[in-house]
Amino acid sequence: MIKFKTDVELSEFPKKIGYRHQFLMIGSCFAENLGIFLQERALPIQINPFGVLYNPQSIANCLELILTRKIFTDQDLFYFNGLYHSFSHHSRYSGSDKPLLLKRINAEAAEAYQNLKGGSHLFITFGTSWVFQHKERGTVVSNCHKLPAATFNHSRLSVDQIIKIWIPLIEQLKLINPKLHLVFTVSPIRHLKDGAHGNQLSKSILLLAIDEIISIYGNELITYFPSYEIILDELRDYRFYARDMTHLSELAIDYIREKFLAALMEPEAIPISDEAGKLLQSIKHKPFNSKEEHYITFLNTQFKKMEELQKKYSFVNFQNLRGKFDEKIIN
């Protein structure tokens, strides 16, 4: 048979995800997208406790803050354009109510610490090796929060710099949780603000750095999932991109999800995820008239299925799924 694409072979992952252990996903918007998919299927995951992060240094900085159990205070925030911001956080953690914002930031960081300490996996997605360094503070920021460009220096990390940042961090992670398994990936989303060539150089640096880190520690502690390669080699066509020609289409995201689950999900977890996914689709179904009796009956039938699923898998927390049903039924 003639082959029309190059298949990316996936390595055997020594440790897989399931419903019995918490895990954490941190990094770019690609990590966010994949994490939400898993979370909706009731997998015990925390996604980006500092918001979307793109470069290896910002991700490492935030993990360091989590590991040292940093408590954020007024001094860690600044006021700009009517909102309080943190240079360690994405703009979704910006707000007008300072006490409420600090409460949210500290709560998510505390939860992340527990997930690192007792979890099974940490998934890290690098998006770019380009960083923004605040000129006055001298620190690399996680987000510029639309401050003037002159506030920052824009530069690219080297392979050696990334390795020097991450080796001490990995040692800290090993101390807090020797059983924690790290899975690195490079986001297939292109950062074209740095130019096409700049983006390719950036991604190459990330790939080389990850490869070097894995060569130091071995596959028992750290593995690599080739999301970047899947897009470039298996789906090398603009029809797999969104209209901006930078982000991925839903079809491409679905394809990578399937590859990810096939490679990394425990056999026990697959039927649970499938059943939860079917229930999720029933919730997302939009009827012509939500007040019609047959639709209400349909919702109640699906809700009973969810309760049966909860009884069948008592170790799984279907609270988020239940909440979506409750909201639909009440409305």
Keywords, separated by commas or semicolons:
331 residues, alpha/beta, Rossmann fold, 2 domains, two-stranded antiparallel ribbon, 10 helices
Question: Topology of this protein?
Answer:
Elements: E1 23-27, H1 29-40, E2 45-47, H2 56-67, E3 78-80, E4 83-85, H3 98-118, E5 121-126, E6 130-134, E7 152-156, H4 159-176, E8 181-186, H5 196-217, E9 222-224, H6 227-234, H7 250-264, H8 269-284, H9 293-312, H10 319-330
Parallel strand pairs: 1-2, 1-5, 5-8, 8-9
Antiparallel strand pairs: 3-4, 6-7
Helix pairs in contact: 2-4, 4-5, 8-9, 8-10, 9-10
Give your account of this protein's structure.
This protein is α/β, with parallel strands linked by helices and 331 residues long. It folds into two domains: 23-266, SGNH hydrolase (Rossmann fold); 268-331, no CATH class. 47% of the residues lie in helices and 12% in strands. The protein has ten helices and nine strands. Strands 2-1-5-8-9 form a five-stranded parallel sheet, sandwiched between helices. The chain has a two-stranded antiparallel sheet with strand order 3-4. It is globular.
